[in-house]
Structure formats: C-alpha cells, structure tokens
C-alpha cells in the first residue's frame, strides 16, 4: 500500500509543468475577459467571452480558459477545440444562462452533452 506522502509526490507538478501552466495563465490573462473571442468547434465558429467560458472553473472549458489546460490560438486568433460543433450552442447557452434548454424532440442530446 502506498503512503500518503508517496501519493502526494506523484501528483506534484514538475517545474516544467508549473512553468507551462504559468505561461498559459499569462496568455489567458492577456485576453480581455469581457471582449469577444472566437471558438472553432469542429469547424463551426462561435463568439463568446472568457468570462462565459470560465463560469464553471472546474469544467473542461473553465480549466482550458482558466489557464490549467494548455491553449494555443490558431493563426486567425480563434481557439480550436476538436469536437462536433453542431450542438455546442446548447453548452454555450447553458454557460450564459445557467439553464440547459434542449429541444423536446431531441432527447438524445442530453446523453451527448453530459
């Protein structure tokens, strides 16, 4: 059985990882959190703000735009996320309003989005 100190050591970040996270945070901070940014989700483009994307900071998008997941912008300044973009507007609207509103004739979306 591993001791607590061994487990803690496994989860400590290396100096290189810490430096990469710090650089990523600085890049994110350079973005004005209330200015529009463009997301390219599987080829479909969405406009939103860093404030919206970081509303739930422990979510994938919150971690990404909060500086915890490496983030690179494309040549055009947009941020590419390799996912199907057809249903991303439901997620974006949830982040904006706090309410998940799905069409009643598409119950399969709940499973896809969760």
Walkthrough of the structure:
- It is a single chain.
- With 114 residues, the chain is α+β, with helices and mostly antiparallel strands.
- 44% of the residues lie in helices and 13% in strands.
- The protein is built from 6 helices and 3 strands.
- The chain has helices at 4-11, 15-30, 50-53, 60-65, 88-97, 108-113; strands spanning 36-41, 44-49, 79-81.
- A 3-stranded mixed β-sheet has the order 2-1-3.
- A hairpin with a 2-residue loop joins strand 1 and strand 2.
- It is globular, with a radius of gyration of 17 Å.
- The N and C termini lie far apart (35 Å).
- The model is unreliable at 1-8 (pLDDT under 50).
> Which shape, going by the Cα principal axes?
globular
Instruction: Kindly report the average pLDDT value.
Output: 81
Q: Give, in spatial order, the strands making up the sheet with the most strands.
A: 2-1-3
Helix content: 40-55%
Show unreliable segments. 1-8
Order of helices and strands: HHEEHHEHH
Number of helices: 6
Strand content: 5-15%
Subunit organisation of the chains: single chain
Distance between termini?
35 Å
What structural category arises from helix and sheet content?
A: alpha+beta
Major β-sheet profile: 3 strands, mixed
Determine Rg (CA atoms, Å).
Answer: 17 Å
DSSP strand count: 3
